[in-house]
UniProtKB/TrEMBL annotation, chains A, B, C:
Signal peptide: none annotated. This is DUF4434 domain-containing protein. Transmembrane segments: none annotated. Residues 3-294 form the DUF4434 domain. Coiled coil: none annotated.
Length: 312, 312, 312
């Protein structure tokens, strides 16, 4: 099970920024390429007031700040140059669907964003799909309708480009980054996970093409069961089932540094055993890149490359 | 709005130490110089038992430890060599004015420190001012009297060298570093901030020459209002109004790593718009230096230098 | 007081992994050698499901994961190559003696581990001792019996190789890494520390040869008293008294980065003053190595080497 995709963590939610310019991003795409990555996914195009592209719409309606550089343009160009598919991550208000439970407002904003983005970047050869960036673990509020409406609109404007979601499992490690705890007693059961996600999948069939559950919120020995359920559900509703192999370590008090290679390998092998369709990671540039500010990432890259060679 | 000053975070309160020797410090002053820095400010000369210079007085009265190197001497020499002004930061007991509310004791200690320091280092050509290191956000306890007495004594012994304070705003991000939270509900109002600081400024007029509010405790869109109030208050009482542009990121769970360049730029532009007199940063060596242990800092340096070139 | 030993933090409990391969480990042993290190101590051979060697026994009984590399073999070879003594750290279940208070089960597992390990690696020339990896600060549960039974068995199978424990002091900084606090009100008294450890030492005499208390859980000015008690107790029961000089900083909100050199020096000088027999550190590879992911560690190495030169 090789990692062939990565998120691009711009705009970052809880991972400190590396302050890279165009030169560093270009080099990073080269490193990705050498590791076999063919897909990059912008985690979100905006979060609260921060934007990855100069959205006239969000600057006006949400008071968002004009970004110093158009990262969407840069990433599309780099994707084209290095032969990758780029997925565009939608805007996450960080409030309407969150504190306020106003999913309709979150949908409305993003319908505009989709139109704006497709008009601006839709002709870029590397524009390969959409990422619905609102991440949940349960059938929370209006999430099913949000995914359905946004997925349908993404596909409608773009001639059917694929849509991706990346939920997490409400497991014992489902803890906010700013919470110092590492685990909790209260976790979802396999049965509840299966039941709720079947309901969600039923509601988003046709609107969402790919589901890539995050693999870091349950214990390692629990992965096989969850992967099996997720794969079966995806099959049942005609979706692709990828794994989002987290390359940072959720078991350590510093939130977050690169994961121990052994853990990542274990998760990839569990995904392979479950027959998942593709592995992507969150994310290469901080946690696996040879030029990451965390040197552990470069060593992880080397260990992973040795593993690929061994598999070949 | 260019950054022309930086704190030197020795003795550090909550930022892990880089363990630099004289060679690294010399190189760092060269990096600072290339960024346009002309002023360095020792954040404090001692904190609890830790000292930046071998204070016979504090070793005797407070049981402080003899430091392995005289950093005040080193910084004065480096400041002279690289053409910078050095501000000496007073001693912070971390207890008398804090837990115990005994501002008189804090003042008494520092009156001795001022005499001791001026006798030892007063003839150094780079000795350019004083930093009153007790940082507050509100009219807390005896802070007005402390600033007044210490400021007057600093100026009296040194022939009127300028005195600086760097308060913070009691905003939604006013959280202790060891507290895992990133924001809080309870924050000062603009009106209370203005009223309390007018009272403080009235009490310290003539004793404190410069006020450099820290810019990291309020949200980015709130800065314009606070900067305007601070500038107007400083004008009213004949003080200079600098901005202390924090170069670390308060929005991330790791406390603290270098700030995202976009955020620093936004803060500097708000300071320029408000007509502030000078920008300093907390602080260069961890968060903006090309040789920082945090490689994100070197990238921030590069982004900032590109911005300077663009402005020129 | 020079540092002549270090722990090897595999399997790590709360320090993020560096993802080194054989090449990096070899280089690290060279760095250690240049610093005068003659003793390396594996902190534990397993923790919960994670293993440092492919223990057939623990994979079967505890469902432990097969590790990607046999670190015990690697460390024994590197120790031999670089002329060091290797201490093998026992398995820490992280549960039986911890949550469940089932010390008998922890002992039973480790009696098997000792046999398995001695059969597999006992003929390695560098195998020089045993580390009983269950770390306590008080006379907790069945800890005395655990140390006695495991120590006796280690010595019995190995022809009397020395056994080491490294307790901590239940001081004001005895805080779990995942707890954001830096200190607490409740701390052991000198008298209680002395009384409880005399009882423990009386119970483990003959089974444990060396005690190396961790030096990071009390304030710096408290070290002299604790060192004196520990040394006197060790003398009373015929044990060697080492110090485990922690090279990470417990006073900072990031848990953990390398310690400030001044603090480490202060602790080493207190250990020398107390006449302790040897200094080891937790641990070289993250916190003192020139190739550590934390560049502060390389600077700490340089400061320490200057200090060694000064002492010579």
């Amino acid at each position: 099970m090789q990692i062939t995709g990565t998120f691009l963590d711009e705009i970052s939610h809880d991972i400190p920024h590396q302050n890279w310019g165009e030169k560093e991003w270009d080099l990073d795409f080269q490193h990705m390429k050498r590791m076999g990555i063919d897909t990059v996914i912008l985690i979100r195009s905006g979060y609260r007031q921060w934007l990855a592209y100069p959205s006239a719409y969000l600057m006006k309606t949400e008071g968002a700040y004009k970004p110093p550089v158009d990262l969407v343009r840069l990433f599309l160009e780099l994707s084209e140059r290095h032969g990758m598919q780029f997925y565009f991550g939608l805007y996450d208000s960080g409030k309407y669907w969150w504190d306020q439970g106003d999913y309709a407002r979150e949908v409305e904003l993003n319908l505009h964003v989709i139109d704006e983005v497709w008009a601006a970047y839709g002709d870029a050869p590397a524009f390969g799909g959409w990422y619905l960036s609102q991440e949940v673990s349960r059938k929370t509020g209006g999430i099913t309708g949000l995914y359905r409406k946004l997925g349908i609109h993404c596909k409608a404007v773009s001639g059917g480009l694929p849509t991706l979601i990346s939920p997490y499992i409400d497991g014992k490690k489902a803890i906010l980054a700013k919470d110092p705890s590492l685990s909790r007693e209260d976790a979802v059961s396999l049965e509840d996970h299966q039941r709720e996600w079947r309901e969600i999948f039923a509601g988003i069939q046709g609107a969402v093409d790919i589901v890539a559950f995050q693999d870091g919120h349950v214990d390692y020995h629990e992965l096989a069961d969850y992967f099996a359920i997720n794969k079966a559900l995806a099959d049942e509703f005609g979706m692709q089932c990828w794994t989002n192999a987290e390359s940072f370590d959720r078991d350590m008090p510093i939130k977050f540094l690169p994961i121990k290679w052994e853990k990542l390998r274990l998760k990839l092998e569990a995904a392979r055993a479950a027959g998942l369709d593709k592995a992507i990671t969150f994310e290469f540039s901080h946690f696996m890149s040879p030029q990451s500010a965390y040197p552990q990432a470069g060593h992880l890259y080397n260990r992973y490359q040795e593993y690929r060679k061994m598999l070949a």
